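Sequence in, structure out.
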Amino acid sequence: MTIADIKKTAETKMDQSITAFKNNLQKIRTGRANPALLDTVQVEYYGSLVPLSQVANVALIDSRTISVQPWEKGMGAKIEKAIRDSDLGLNPASQGDLIRVPMPAMTEERRKELTKVVRGEGEHAKVAIRNLRRDANDGVKKLVKDKLASEDDERRAHDEVQKFTDRFIAEVDKLVAGKEQDIMAV
């Protein structure tokens, strides 16, 4: 493995960390309804747990209400129970075949709690990025130790790895700030 391979691998993995962080942020609810909020809900379906999206159609009715339309008649009660039991703090209501999931109003206390959650997720993403930086730097040091690269190459590689680490950490900070604004604006 060359220094270029190590840098490319580290940058790719850091980019994947950012993508995972964005997905985690989508699951944190603001006051607005978002069908992706229910992506983590698992429903019992013939003895096994499956994602809600595999047993029902999830859509928006309005900006504060998600509709869940089960594909099978008997699934309504199970879906409703799964949503209620999830840690999302939602209270679904059945209307015949349709399940309505209203978004509760955000209290000031809940907003502060959510900003802490967002900051915690951001910190986890930063730690993951820093761990990838450390792994890349260790890989470069090993190449120098094995005499496959010079110390000048090592210094240049450390500087470049640090530059894209800083870039990704700045992106995490920007995403955290944006999500905090979303939470406080609603």
